Amino acid sequence: MSEAAGITPVSRLPPRSRVPVPPFVGTTLVPIVLALVAGGLVLAAIGTDPLAYYAYVLERGLLRLRGLQATLVHMIPLLILGAALIVSFRSGLWNLGIDGQYMLGMLTAGALAPHLVQAMPLAPALGLSALAGGVAGTLWALPPAWLRARHGTNEVISGLMMSLIATSLVAALVKLWLRDPASLEPQTLTLAVGDRLPMIPGTDVNVGLVLALLVVLGVHAMMTRTAAGLRFRVLGLNPAAARHAGFGGPVLAMSVLCLSGFLGGLAGSVELIGALGKMQASWNPAYGFAVVPLVFLSRFNGLALILLAFAFSVLEIGGASAATRLDVPQDFTLVLVGFVLIFLALAEYLAQRRAET
Amino acid sequence: MQSLLSQTFLAALLTGTVVSAIPLILAALGEQFSERAGVLNIGVEGMMLSGAYAGFATTLAGGGIWGGLLAALACGAGLGALMALFCVRMGMNQIIVGIALTLGAAGVTALLHHAHFARTYPRLDAAPRIAIPGLSGIPVLGQALFHHHPVTWLGLLAPALFALIYRNSFLGLNLAAAGERPDALDATGIGVVATRSAAVIVGGAMAGLGGGYMAVIASGIFVPHMTGGAGYIAIVLAMLARSRPLSVLGGGLLFGMCLAVTTALQVGGIAIPTDVIQMLPFVAVMAVLVLFGRHARMPSALGQPYRRGQR
Q1: pLDDT value of residue B291
Q2: Which among A143, A244, B235, B281 would be 20 to 30 A from B290, CA to CA?
Q3: What confidence score (pLDDT) does residue A16 get?
Q4: TM segments (chain B) (predicted)?
């Protein structure tokens, strides 16, 4: 451009031939719709009417008051886990050990909360339990974080290993030491309903939802508005630039993964003191892999994450009813999530190609 | 404890070691192959699962053991081709595509299993085993090593074959070049995309074969999510063995022994929850990573899509 004043003559402006499409339509909505269509084909292939399935899911997950409340409660852990992944993915690090951190966080809260509520007033007892869960998540994130920071070992694999260990470790701990002697199922002591997080007035949704929304908004603000967030983002966009600027060292990588681990643990402890009240030895929802695509779809944007987590919850809650009613296993959600990821990556590829030409 | 150390027990443990190690070795060799060319394949777990299902269904439908293994190989190669299309040709993010393939394969095989086998849970006849005359008579080791289905021996010999390819063939050199300096390979006139695609497809085929071995020969049954993390162990194996296929053999046998001990202790009725035992192989992996993590080196262009003229 030779125009010194920086003003482009009108004759050089690109022609306004196409109506501009908001970016989120191309790279968020289109992959979702395509995934639903492809999933519908899979349903048809196994002999289920896809339209009936989706209609049933919507009716059960969204249109009935009970279903809607269940959907909102189901969102709570997804939101906090999403915030954890935003911190890590935006910094270019892959905290895929998120499921393990969630499990350990929940177990810690499950072990502490029933005793703490006996010893002190409710508010500090629940607050301490939630925080302890976060700390447990941080500790569980430490080995992969250290390996990554010290030796550059790929954190994806070590994280997945820690998750696999956590599943068995939690079950073993519940069976061996934390078991409620009064129950037949191996599970921790149950937190009485009155000792859990209070409900939002007029609903059956606990205040964990408010907390989760605050966590997402807080993380969003931190990543976009603070110096620490800027460092994280520079690390994610260009590690070499971060090193040149003097902050790309092991400490930053460790803090990213530990913060992410803290939120992962917090998701577990909040779900325990809010919705579940106890941890069963067999509990392993594997939310992590469900949240990963949501976080990518949201382009690491906290506000978009809230909408997407809501939509996904509808799918899960409705899908759970459909599993018993229409005989479609819940594994179908995995298929949908896989399709979403593929179409998302495709959409990004196409958008990039268009930008280059 | 007496019975734990008897000869028959040891023989059974070693046989179990070999049988559990083969899927890991096959999948890890495939992973090593594609990593060498610069593509990190996180989808191994999904490829193994799809291979397991394809192999099981084919053998059950009357395709025989070799037919089942062939189907498993083809299925893995198919997913590998998909991954090559997305990650190598189009340069999409390798981790996202890998996760997507794993999730998709886990979901689809679970749905198929639910539709076809969930009510009957059919079982395959045990794979016929051949005893090598003479060698199989050696106490303990003979039964463990020389009384197997022939595929098992092929699996044990495969690392040597891969070592030969890496050391003595142009293909091996091309692979290494595609992983370390793709621009140099491109400059010699050999397509980086073609080399890498071939590597990913071979990697997928090996993972599929490993899964097929699990279903058709090792267990004779398919259950959803049956690989249970074996694909990730294979990735770790490839990572730690770096570019040496023979280390994959050693490491694979070591982890195979972990898995076999897990089963043996469960069968032996030791009074610890099975959960404690189930996590041992993964604890072992983490311990190895912490102790030897600094040796885990990757090709310098690993994970980077190649575009001509771009640094």
Answers
A1: 83
A2: A244
A3: 47
A4: 65-88, 95-115, 150-166, 187-207, 213-241, 248-270, 276-293
Nearest to B108 among A143, A156, A335 (CB): A335
pLDDT at B28 over 70: yes
ipTM over 0.85: no
- B126: amino acid identity, one letter: A
Residue B310 resides in a domain: no
Residue A59 · residue A318 · CB < 8 Å: yes
What value does the mean pLDDT take over residues A217-234?
Answer: 92
Strands B130-131 and B147-148, by their bridges, are: antiparallel
Distance from CA of A124 to the nearest CA of B (A): 34
Nearest to B103 among A147, A153, A337 (CB): A337
DSSP state of A210: H
Cβ of A42 within 8 Å of Cβ of B232? The answer is no
- Which residue spans within chain A are E strands per DSSP? none
Assess if residue B304 is contained within a domain.
Answer: no
Task: Identify whether B75 is part of a domain.
Answer: yes
In a domain, A293, yes or no: no
Say which residue, A323 or A131, is predicted with more confidence.
Answer: A131
Q: Which residues of chain B are within 8 Å of residue A143 when distances are taken between CB atoms?
A: 286, 290
By CB atoms closer than 10 A (0-12, 13-18, 19+), residue A268 is buried
**Residue B271 vs residues A46, A111, A187: alpha-carbon distances, Å:** 43, 24, 19
Structural domain span for residue A225:
70-285
Q: For residue A152, which of A259, A263, A249, A255 has the smallest C-alpha distance?
A: A249
> For B111, which of A42, A147, A156 is closest by C-beta distance?
A42
CA nearest B281: which of B218, B209, B215, B232?
B232
Number of independent structural domains in chain A: 1
Q: Where are the beta strands (DSSP E) in B112-153?
A: 130-131, 147-148
Q: How many domains are contained in chain B?
A: 1
Q: What are phi and psi of B289, to 5 degrees?
A: -65, -40
In a domain, B311, yes or no: no
Closest CA to B248 of B15, B16, B36, B13: B36
Determine whether the interchain pair A164/B101 forms a contact, defined as Cβ–Cβ distance below 8 Å: no
Q: In which domain, by residue range, is B142 found? A: 3-125+135-295
In a domain, A50, yes or no: no
Provide the sign of the torsion angle of the four alpha carbons B224, B225, B228, B230, taken in this order: positive
Distance between CA B183 and CA B178 in Å, rounded?
A: 8
Q: Where are the alpha helices (DSSP H) in A272-330?
A: 288-297, 302-325
What pLDDT score was predicted for residue A24? 64
Residue A334 has pLDDT above 60, yes or no: yes
pLDDT for B22:
95
What is the amino acid identity at position B182? P
Is B100's CB within 8 Å of A42's CB? no
A110: in domain:
yes
